[in-house]
Amino acid sequence: MDEKDLKYGLFADAPDLVDTIPALGKLKKACPAYISRAEKAQCIARKFAREEMLPRVLAIDTRCSKDPQYVDWDLWRKANDLKLNIAAVPVKMGGLGWSALDNAVLVEELSSVCLANAANITFNTFGLLGALVECKTDIVLNIIRMMVDAQKKGEPLFWSWAITEPSAGTDMEDGEAMAQMKASTSARKVPGGYRLNGTKCFITNGSLAHYVIATIPMDPSHPKESMATFFVPTTTKGFSVGRIERKCGQKASQTAEIFFDDVFVPEENLWEPPGRGLRHTREILSITRGYIGLCGVAMARGALDHCIRFANQKKRNGHMLLDEDWVKFAIADMMKDIMAVRAACYNFAIALDTSHIWSLFEKLPIKASLKILPGKMILGDALLNLSRLKPVRLLGSKYKGSIVSDRMVEKFVTEGSALKVAGTDLAVRVGSRVLDIVGLEGMAYDLGMEKYFRDAKVTQIYEGSNQANRIDLFHNTIGTLR
Ligand SMILES: Cc1cc2nc3c(=O)[nH]c(=O)nc-3n(C[C@H](O)[C@H](O)[C@H](O)COP(=O)(O)OP(=O)(O)OC[C@H]3O[C@@H](n4cnc5c(N)ncnc54)[C@H](O)[C@@H]3O)c2cc1C
Q1: Cα(350)–Cα(367) distance, integer angstroms
Q2: Does ligand 1 lie within 6 Å of residue 199's CB atom?
Q3: Are residues 61 and 114 in the same domain?
């Protein structure tokens, strides 16, 4: 088969979104602007992934194996120039105004080439996500202002979300498990704020972060009842970074230990009061788990793309490997799983747009404000000062609370858990099966296929281990059976 006839995945002519997910084609008739923007996002993201990421990801991976602190800042700057790291920020405020669907497209395209480098670019939306979950007006405006300012200056601005501790990983994400655990971090009330102590570990971008959103209990022996969420600038005295982990995969995405040694956090940086920390965690998970499922699908797609290309070029017994029936059968088998889970992930992204925090941007008061107010004014000092007044501050979070209920968060966690397990298990399965097809040459680093397998394995662990996600899924759908 001619290379140009291989119109699948990485090699397809963009945009192929509505061709590969027919439901989006149907939706395009009802909401043309919504789907057209997603198609445009696919063109931009695919071009960046193919032209900027693909030629260098293996070299970055090699470099990071030797030096876990290495970051390809040139690649990061190119993404920053395209505003891919502030894609979710509304256009009026300086971003691309990309919806949850558009961001899903971005995450998929970049992760199909390299999840670790995709993480360095797209996980920057984390600050915005944490702020939107809070939805206190001053927090949201302030975070967006910082993101937009940094993007304009071409300066990196990284955020970390720190929940895992040496004594608690899964336990920090689940109410029942948390009730049993003993936390190794603690916070105590002092005049004007709080003092934080303890260690968090395996924190993505912990070594690069300018701000950390940390979940820490006031009483380590009663974490569930006393867990609070703090916003910590990493320049604060007492904050330090420990070991950067050497991982089997996703080497270009730094994962680090962070230490809190009597770190002072002022009252206004208490994002969630004691007892509300787990709720904050669950709401973030209700969004991120679905996206990690899509990262899994993307890696499976990328690995399969490489495999198809290889099998189309490799001669065996006088014909191409791709012409063997067993190879066609195996590829079709993998494709059907990718198609099914991918469609489910896009369903999830559309649900985020229609019913979760992304829907806020479509609500009349916010849509109208974004339309009427001049861009400079929205992120200006006057509005920011106004948003700090207590009644205004709480208005946003009250409004959001009326849209995103606790019950709805748990429904999204359930669906997200299903996708996270389905997508990341698929990535490992496909990552392994394509290596079986390719054979010995697949073991070679330069072919770029064994990297998918290594990267995929890591996703089964984070955002809650897949076992923990299965337990979550069971509890939230069937309940606790005795
Ligand atoms: C690359 C990477 C990036 C990460 N980034 C972050 C980050 O940015 N922020 C952050 O906070 N954390 C992060 N983590 C940590 C990650 O979320 C945890 O590793 C994960 O939650 C699992 O926790 P654990 O490793 O402590 O395993 P444990 O919780 O100790 O689990 C060990 C084993 O026991 C099983 N298990 C645990 N509890 C139960 C239970 N109740 N019932 C049955 N089985 C159970 C698990 O499934 C697993 O098989 C990251 C991890 C990695 C590898």
Answers
A1: 18
A2: no
A3: yes
Does residue 37 form part of some domain?
yes
Task: Decide: 456 in ligand 1 pocket, CB within 6 A.
Answer: no
Whose tokens are 């968060």? That residue is 409
Q: Name residue 255's beta-bridge partners.
A: 204
Residue nearest to atom 6 of ligand 1 (CA): 203
Query: What are the structure tokens assigned to 57, written together?
Result: 């990801």
430 within 8 A of 386, measured Cβ to Cβ: no
Q: Ligand 1 pocket, 295 CB below 6 A?
A: no
User: Which strands form 270-272's sheet, in the order they lie side by side?
Assistant: 159-162, 211-217, 227-233, 270-272
241, burial (CB in 10 Å: exposed 0-12, middle 13-18, buried 19+): middle
Task: For residue 470, count other CB atoms closer than 10 A to its CB.
Answer: 15
Interval between CA 164 and ligand 1 midpoint (Å): 7
Residue 371 resides in a domain? no
* pTM for the whole structure: 0.95
Whether pLDDT at 238 is above 90: yes
- What confidence score (pLDDT) does residue 481 get? 53
How close is the Cα of 158 to the center of ligand 1, in Å? 22
Does 19 share its domain with 110? yes
- Residue of 163, 170, 255 to test ligand 1 pocket, by largest number of atoms within 8 Å of CB: 170
374 within domain boundaries = no
pLDDT at 73: 97
Centroid of ligand 1 to alpha carbon of 472 (angstroms): 14
Q: Residue 169: give its domain's CATH number.
A: 2.40.110.10
* pLDDT-derived band at 392, boundaries 50, 70, 90: confident
CATH number for position 325: 1.20.140.10
Q: Using an 8 Å Cβ cutoff, are 295 and 341 in contact?
A: no
Q: Is the pLDDT of residue 318 over 50?
A: yes
Q: Alpha-carbon distance 87 to 45, whole Å?
A: 11
Residues in the chain: 482
Q: Is 250 in the pocket of ligand 1 (CB under 6 A)?
A: yes
Regarding the beta carbon of 462 and ligand 1, being less than 6 Å apart is answered: yes
* Residue 29 CA to ligand 1 centre (angstroms): 43
Burial class (CB in 10 A: 0-12, 13-18, 19+), 11: middle
Q: Cα of 385 to ligand 1 centre, how many Å?
A: 40
378 located within any domain: no
pLDDT tens sequence across 179-217 = 888 889 999 999 999 999 999 999 999 999 999 999 999
